[in-house]
Structures are given as C-alpha cells and as structure tokens.
Specification:
This protein is α/β, with parallel strands linked by helices and 474 residues long. The chain has 17 helices and 21 strands. Helix 1 packs parallel to helix 12, helix 5 runs parallel beside helix 7 and helix 14 crosses helix 15. The longest helix has 18 residues. The chain is elongated, with a radius of gyration of 24 Å.
Length: 474
C-alpha cells in the first residue's frame, strides 16, 4: 500500500461510506486517515466504523489512522410562533432570555453566557452568515440589535459571534461522553471544535492522557488572535475554512490558510486543509477546475493532509473523490516547481538536538541522493521532526508501537511500519535497509539514512544519524 505522494488524504465517513466494502475501496483509492464526525454519529455507529477500519488495516497490512471530530458547542436561536420571520435591513431586533416563542421583533437566545458576553458593536451572524446584525445595546438578559443584512430566520438556526469571546469550554457534556467513548475504542487523533484559546485544547489533552493526540480546528477569529499559543500546545491543526469563512471575511481565508500552514510547519506540527475542497463531487463524478486548483494549492503549500467532508461522507461519488484527490496530489508532487516551492519554505530549525539531527539527515540525504530516510521511533517524535524538513527522499518510520504508526498516518511523507525495536546499531541499519527494499523505496545496494535515539526505546532521545547501504531483502 505504498503511496506515490507525500501529502495525506483524510476522508470523512458517513451514510455514503460506512459499509465495509466502500471503506476498503476508499483505502485502496488513497485514504490514509478516516474522520468520524460526532455531530452525526452515535457511539454504536462510531464503534462499528472503528472495528471495520481496524480489520481492514490488518487485512491490507497498512496502518490507517482514525480522527474523532468532537461536535463542540452549538449556539442557536430559539423558536418562533410562526416557525420563522423575515427581517428587514435597518430594523431593530432583540435577542433575549425570554423562553416564549419569538416574533418579528424578538427571539429567545437560550445561551445566557452569550447575552452576558455581548457588547455594543459586536456582530451577530445567523444561519451561516445569511443574516447579519450588530448590537447597539447589551444587558445580561437582553441585547438590542440592528439588522445589517436582511433575510429569514427560522427555528433553531445557528448563531456565530466573530467579535465575542464566549466564556465557555470548547467541550460540552456530549463531547466529554464522545471523547471517552472514542478513547476507549483507541482512536488516534481528537479534533477539537470551537477552539478559542490554548486552554481548550489543553483540556482535551488532559483527559486523553496520551491515549490520542489533539488536533485544534482553527475556525474562529479568537483562535487566530492566539494562534501561536494554540499551535504550541496542539499536536496538529486544521484550517477549518467553512466556519472560518463565516466568521471572517471570505477574502481573508486564503491568506489565513497560508499563515496557519507555515506557522504550524515552523513548529513541526501537522496541518490539515479542510472544507469544500472537491465540493461539486457531492453530486457530480468530476470536480471543477477551480477545485482542482484549490487542492493543488494546499499541496504546493506543503500541507500535511487535505480533507474530504461531505464529498466522501454523503456524496454520490465517495471513492471517485478520494481517487481524484490522490491523482491531483501525485501530479503536483511530480512537478519540479512543487519541490522548488517546498524547499523555499524551509525555516531555521529549533535549537534542539532532535531538530539538528533532522536537518542533518535531510541535507545528507539530498547531497548523496539516498533513497529513504529511515527513522526508528517509539513516540513518533523523530518522524515528526524529519517530516518538518520536507526531505526529498521517502520517510520510513520504524516503530514497535502500533498506535504510533497510526498517528503518523496524518504526517507528511511518512510511511510507517510496525516492527520490534532494534537490538543494536548494526541491527538498526540492516533491518532499516530490508524494510526500505521490501516496501519498494530502494533496491539492494542503494544508500539510505538511518536516524535513531540511543539508547533504543527512549522517547525523545533522537541523537544519531548513520549512512547505510541496503542489502538483499531475504
């Protein structure tokens, strides 16, 4: 199951892709990680999908990662006496704590924390920004607003607050229940929605206690304002362009995508570009030219992964969507311009031994034109650091921990293999060469780079680099 590209493909499972045969076809088409969206999945449904994925991983001898996406708080208006109202530009409209059905002049906002946090001048977006208001008067139980963008509001429509920091956790009781259920089933990554501050991702990591890694979804202006501290504490990030484009001007999203991607790479944190990448393939078997260009842009930027949402979860052509994304990525990565762009994005390493070794491995590998950089890693940190450097040769991660191999399925360019730890330095080099040959990255007599930490099995102790020649794979 060797991939002929470095960027990974994250596919969302849903009604169109939850049977065993379709999931198998998605893996064969190129899916590296599956996303289970807990906004639409029950615990029983989640467990069944995980069981099928794990069985297929074993059957295909290829480690597939699983990302559990927590729903996060859902902020909504209450209900209307007539099911909805049409607002007119310039009119006054009130959001309040009164639970009675709404009318043309007011509606219940069943979130007292929002009413307490609103202030004059704050913008309120309803139904994904289709209706826009701004607050002129705010009290703990009542906020008066003026309609800036007219439209219809109906029962339970979503509310977005780009200017308001809401003093609530990113985790609801449902999220806590979903998180524990997912951890008990051995998911590899946890995606945290509604992140506003570093504490939101820290809360999830505290509960996970290393059983899964935490991915922060960047979808709110408050997260952009604290981007550096969120990246610092997160294990990975997602550019959640859908919600980001609701709460911020659409024209700012492409620049933010580049900023988030480069900031994450600077610290060696994987970054996923998501939302509407091949949106038209929900209903048609081929994408638009603009969508192809969008996916290609993410690959040129050096994103670790690109994600399919409704395309693979609910669309008519889930397998075709993955296969199309796979072809786009392979084509981009065969372009000489891609390698030039990737090299131009290189940043100064962090002043650590692991980063120094990773940079040295990249430079030696490219100077000698070696076929693979083989990293012996228990925790995966060595492979993360090498991937940060975006070396030209393939990256093989050799690990005794299956959980580590699955987590690395999200990381740029890493082909993970589960094997027992090396006995000594010679065994480390010999077996790395055999695996490189067996997986199709090299032939007998080719040079490889071997990176490891001595003593073996010590997490975070990357301190050795060796040039070796591959022998015959017996």
């Amino acid at each position: 199951m060797r991939r002929l590209r470095r960027v990974k493909i994250l596919a969302t499972l849903g009604p169109a892709s939850q049977d065993r045969e379709t999931i198998k076809r998605l893996i064969e088409a190129g899916a590296d990680v599956f996303r289970i969206n807990m906004s639409h999945a029950s615990h029983d449904n989640m467990r069944e999908r995980i069981r099928v994925i794990r069985e297929l991983s074993k059957e295909l001898n290829h480690e597939i990662g699983i990302l559990l996406d927590l729903q996060g708080p859902k902020l909504r208006v209450g209900e209307f006496a007539d099911g909805g109202v049409d607002l007119v530009k310039g009119q006054t409209f009130v959001l309040d704590s009164d639970a009675r059905p709404g009318d043309s002049g007011r509606v219940h906002l069943p979130h007292p924390e929002i009413l307490r946090a609103l202030a004059p001048g704050h913008v309120v977006l309803i139904d994904d920004g289709k209706v826009r208001l701004h607050i002129t008067e705010a009290k703990p139980a009542r906020a008066v607003a003026i309609v800036d963008v007219a439209g219809r509001i109906s029962n339970r429509k979503g509310v977005s607050l780009p200017d308001t920091e809401i003093p609530v956790s990113a985790m609801t009781e449902k999220d806590r229940s979903d998180l524990e259920a997912g951890l008990n089933e051995g998911v590899d990554w946890i995606a945290v929605s509604f992140v506003q501050r570093a504490d939101d991702i820290a809360e999830v990591k505290k509960i996970a206690r290393g059983r899964a890694l935490g991915l922060a979804k960047i979808e709110k202006p408050q997260a952009i304002a604290r981007l550096d501290e969120i990246i610092e504490i997160s294990d990975a990030l997602m550019v959640a362009r859908g919600d980001l484009g609701v709460e911020m001007p659409l024209e700012k999203v492409p620049g933010l995508q580049k900023r988030i991607t480069r900031s994450a790479r600077r610290l060696g944190k994987p970054v996923v570009v998501a939302t509407q990448m091949l949106e038209s393939m929900i209903t048609t078997p081929v994408p638009t030219r603009a969508e192809v260009s969008d996916v290609a842009t993410a690959v040129y930027e050096g994103a670790d992964a690109v994600m399919l949402s409704a395309e693979s979860a609910a669309g008519k052509f889930p397998v075709e969507a993955v296969a199309t994304m796979n072809r786009i990525a392979e084509e981009v990565e065969s372009d000489q311009v891609w390698r030039a762009v990737i090299n131009a994005q290189r940043m100064a390493p962090e002043p650590t031994g692991a980063d120094a070794i990773a940079v040295a491995a990249r430079d030696v590998a490219e100077t000698l034109d070696v076929k693979a950089v083989c990293a012996w890693t228990a925790s995966g940190s060595t492979a993360f650091r090498i991937a940060r450097e975006r070396p030209a040769p393939a990256i093989l991660a050799l690990t005794p921990r299956r959980a580590t191999a699955r987590r690395l399925s999200l990381v740029w360019g890493v082909h993970a293999i589960v094997t027992k730890d090396a006995d000594d330095i010679d065994d480390m080099a010999v077996r790395a060469g055999k695996f490189a040959n067996r997986e199709g990255f090299s032939n007998a007599g080719d040079r490889i780079i071997v990176v490891a930490g001595v003593p073996f099995g010590t997490p975070g102790a990357t301190n050795m680099i060796r040039i070796a020649f591959t022998g015959k794979d017996k």
